[in-house]
Design brief:
Layout (H helix, E strand, L loop, with lengths): L7 H11 L1 H7 L5 H8 L3 H29 L1 H20 L4 H29 L2 H15 L2 H15 L3 H21 L17 H9 L5 H28 L4 H25 L5 H24 L4 H13 L1 H13 L6 H22 L7 H31 L1
Amino acid sequence: MIQSKTPFIVVLSLALTMMLGPFSMDTYLPAFPVIGESLGISQQAVSLSVSVYVLALALGQLIGGALSDRFGRQRVLMSGLAIFAFSSIVIGMADSLNTLLGGRAVQALGAGFTLVSVPALVRDRVAGRDAAKLFSMMGFIMVLAPGIAPGVGSAILALGSWHYIFFALAVYALLLVPLLVRVIFTGTGKVSRAKSPKMSLLARYKLVLSTKPALPFIVWQAASFSTLMMFITYASFIYQGHFGQSPSAFSMLFAANIVAMLIFNIINRVLLSRLPSLRILQLATGCQAVGIVLLVMAAFMEWPQYAFLPAMMLAIGSIGAISPNIQACFLEFFPTSGGTAAALLGAAQFGVAGLLSALSAMLPHTLEAVILAMAACGSVAYLMLARSVIKGRAAVEA
């Protein structure tokens, strides 16, 4: 059953579920010094929990995606929320680094089960341009999460111990259960998906990987998201270290990129009424390429901050239109294996971005090196753009 118009409550419920990911990654960031002091370890050791989480999140999506195609979205999603809530409580009672890292790994597996089910649920409901619109509407809500998560963590930390942050995450996950049951899995939100053939987990991934026209979108997403991940990793260094801004000014500068993503997201929703998803994806990737070229010029020509900022906003903001259209274009190829396909896309996105971000620590700690790393990721996305344009022209001529 395909619905051309999706109720806002359904969109909001799916977006709130997706927000579990950025909240679990960013809410505890302000507590790093306190966690290190509490556990008797360095902040660098605490930061290992981020790397562990990203890698386990990719694994959780790979496993959960195929399971959701085999056993249904509801079972896998609810299991993910239960795992997430339980492990969050364990982390909240952690008294050692091993417990923290182990808890974060299990928490990420639960989050992976949960997050990978959402794109599949979208694919079960709509396809093509309608799917891109739904992803865009969800993105409009979800893009706020990384911006407000550290503030939420700071507020909780002001009320008490850092442990409360993870207890709050557990409560958040548990509150999603009745919401999803009522809105998504019963009543008007319930949608019957196409019957998925019975096959093993490996067979499902083999099926997705053998769909060659869809594979460039995986590379496209990983490259674009890696550009964003590079910026997030080095944002503090760029604005506070290189440009010498205060923590409060940094928050405003960082928020400017969130605003840019929201603007691109709104423009994307308007354009989807007139243009196909692939065309908007090409235009948005072109904008990102222009932004990156300007960033390279800004870094090597030592532009002032007021000239540097718009270039960064263009390069990062364009992801607000790139990501939803990649998801829509990619999942269009998999009407009966949406969970497996979404898992592969998500795992590639987080796995590649996390690995490149970790490897970037070997680069010189300079603005030029950071921008060149972003440019390398962006150039791969641009190659995918060029490939899609050439393919499109060949199809028209044929």
